[in-house]
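Bumping my old thread because nobody answered last time. Still need a sequence for this structure:
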């Protein structure tokens, strides 16, 4: 069963503008989908259909096997959380706290549960100090975080974010991407729209290109960004890494490659094709995720064990891991693009430790091993066994 299935969806606005034409989209459970397309290509209109804000004029939208109709709209709204492109469309309560609490209160949850969820969300987004402020008076980026927090507290199974990183600074962008990844490792399906091709190319499992209300093409990032013609037709630019790669090929810095690079490490590997093995290693320490009590569930003294292995570099991935690093008062060398950053260090012989929240620890090991296999490398990557 698909988390979301859109079949033959078309939409006309009252003035006659056709915003969607026979759109088909399928989202496998637990996958990450990015919708790309120029302004006015229909991304937001499509998203309004995914949580029943718009009911189909033509075609169907099916959530977990159930077609959206007027009758099941309440269930659909609990199941699919939509974060609007414009946060002003989402925020309305007099304080940030009340805004985030609105949904859970509406579900009839007891106040102590509401408080727990809201505090957790404020913590996750680093917006605790704004809880008593009026959302109208926040900056664009702060509003965005409050709007995302308000949807997450509903704990929906499918998350739909309309341009989640637009207007955010680089560090807040990383935070939002990580939160999406963390939710994804909990099994949630995530659908975003974005104009950020660099992010989409490394983040998404599958990409849909929209053009004038139609799905122009869809597929894995390699397929989408390997097809120069399709991309040019949709006026999208290529990710910076891929543009650099094409230049390298054109200037004979290296010969044509079978696989597209998506990271700086991939590019370096293309130039320096021999397997680097200078004895570096990556250790991964699993920190309890938010669902398992977060960093509060760890004794700070036990965290100091990270120093036992004498790391050259320390990375943190996920909200509770980052909180752990702050608690230890240690300098974190990287907080984004963790797998590639760690590998870059390890190929140069460094010992890296990554603190990773919840299920992300296993994900890191899996990704490093995949990279090892693809590049015929043998970087050691193991979970740090400690009793937290
Ligand atoms: N309320 C409306 N009435 C009439 N036409 C509309 C309305 N809202 C959107 N449209 C039109 O529908 C088309 C799709 O708009 P939509 O907002 O879905 O695009 P988008 O891909 O989200 O664009 P952007 O990247 O700018 O957010 C556009 O041609 C737009 O002008
Ligand atoms: Mg839009």
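Sorry it took so long. Here it is:
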């Amino acid at each position: 069963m698909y988390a979301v299935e859109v079949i033959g969806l078309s939409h006309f606005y009252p003035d006659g503008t056709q915003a969607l034409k026979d759109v088909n989209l399928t989202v496998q459970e637990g996958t990450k989908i990015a919708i790309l397309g120029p302004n006015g290509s229909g991304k937001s209109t499509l998203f309004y259909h995914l949580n029943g804000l718009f009911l189909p004029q033509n075609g169907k939208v099916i959530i977990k096997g159930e077609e959206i109709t007027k009758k099941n709209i309440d269930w659909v709204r609990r199941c699919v959380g939509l974060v609007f492109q414009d946060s002003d469309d989402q925020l309305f309560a007099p304080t940030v706290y009340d805004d985030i609490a609105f949904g859970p209160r509406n579900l009839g949850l007891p106040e102590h549960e509401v408080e727990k969820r809201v505090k957790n969300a404020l913590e996750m987004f680093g917006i605790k100090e704004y809880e008593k402020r009026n959302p109208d008076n926040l900056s664009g980026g702060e509003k965005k975080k409050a709007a995302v927090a308000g949807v997450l507290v509903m704990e929906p199974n499918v998350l739909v974010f309309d341009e989640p990183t637009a207007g955010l600074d680089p560090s807040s962008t990383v935070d939002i991407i990580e939160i999406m990844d963390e939710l994804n490792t909990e099994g949630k399906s995530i659908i975003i729209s974005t104009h950020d091709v660099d992010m989409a190319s490394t983040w998404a499992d599958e990409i849909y290109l929209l053009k004038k209300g139609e799905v122009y093409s869809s597929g894995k990032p390699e397929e989408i960004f390997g097809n120069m013609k399709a991309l040019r037709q949709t006026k999208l630019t290529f990710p910076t890494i891929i543009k650099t790669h094409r230049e390298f090929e054109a200037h004979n810095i290296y010969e044509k490659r079978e696989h597209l690079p998506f990271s700086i490490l991939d590019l370096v590997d293309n130039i320096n094709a021999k397997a680097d093995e200078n004895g570096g290693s990556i250790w991964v320490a699993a920190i309890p995720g938010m669902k398992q009590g977060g960093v509060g569930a760890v004794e700070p003294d036990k965290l100091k064990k990270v120093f036992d292995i004498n790391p050259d570099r320390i990375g943190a991935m996920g909200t509770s891991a980052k909180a752990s690093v702050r608690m230890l008062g240690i300098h974190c060398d990287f907080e984004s693009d963790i797998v590639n950053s760690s590998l870059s260090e390890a190929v140069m012989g460094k010992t890296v430790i990554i603190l990773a929240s919840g299920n992300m620890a296993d994900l890191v090991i899996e990704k490093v091993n995949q990279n090892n296999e693809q590049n015929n490398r043998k970087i050691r990557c193991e979970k740090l066994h400690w009793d937290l």
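The pocket of adenosine-5'-triphosphate (ligand 1) is lined by residues 13, 15, 17, 19, 37, 39-45, 85 (CB under 6 Å). Let me know if any region looks off to you.
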